[in-house]
Sequence to fold (313 residues):
Amino acid sequence: MSQARHTKVLIIGSGPTGYTAGVYASRAMLEPILVQGIEPGGQLTTTTEVENWPGDSEVQGPDLMIRMEAHAKAMGTEVINDIIIDLDVSERPFKAQGDSGTSYTCDAVILATGARAKWLGLPSEEKFKGFGVSACATCDGFFYRGQEIVVVGGGNTAVEEALFLTKFASKVTLIHRRDELRAERILIDRLMKNKKISPMWFHELDEVYGTEMPLGVEGIKVKHTETGQITDIPCKGLFVAIGHAPSNELVKDVLETHMGGYVVTKPDSTETSIPGVFAAGDLTDHKYRQAVTSAGMGCMAALEAERWLSEQS
Fold:
């Protein structure tokens, strides 16, 4: 049944950004409503061990998100399992429409919709996500110490991931559809000089295979883009590094964006090009994309929203 809800601060999206914004907005007595979105908890719910969250030498990604959600609720955030399908920020109060039929109005909005790693769309890739297939070297590279691993991609992301992974892996094979990388020249030079990295040109991923009980990658099959010949590459980890796509569908036509769709914020701030609309986390961050930096920006967004609302009143 449809209903109408109003809040001083509407937080759209969950994960470290949204839940941290909820904690700080609640402490500011703003009684925020947080709408979780299509993937409650965000990208960390698809990650297994997390070893770079301060205070936890190791924690499961889904468990960390459960704890953060519980913290936000304990502080007073109302967490709603809904998906915002339309957002109108042309005038205040801002209006948002939920997929459930609920209409939300708010005096300020914090966008914490994050970004999604781009994937190749193979069934076998999907099967082993979190079990040897990853899109984040800084998150998961540590688990492949002394192992042979593969990176797929040809841009800055792929080259940076491959270089980073040489800290842990015994060998990194870089798979690319062409024989020329799209990365910055300085990165290409570093890659070519690194003896641990072996580029494999004119190939694309065809299949990921591995063990069933427990799930784990044992290797991949790649196909030559010109001859179609299949080559088997044994490996323990596969990193798909073909970029990230910010989840900007709600605001891409109304807020200023750059770098492929990331929302622009003012320097050292989460303020966007529309007063009262704040954006934080991976929706704005094309550089770091870490849970801890996302949480920090969620804190900033809530504090700035509270300050902005005080100025309006």
Summary: The radius of gyration is 21 Å. The helical segments are 15-27, 61-75, 123-127, 137-140, 156-165, 185-193, 291-312. The longest strand covers residues 4-12.
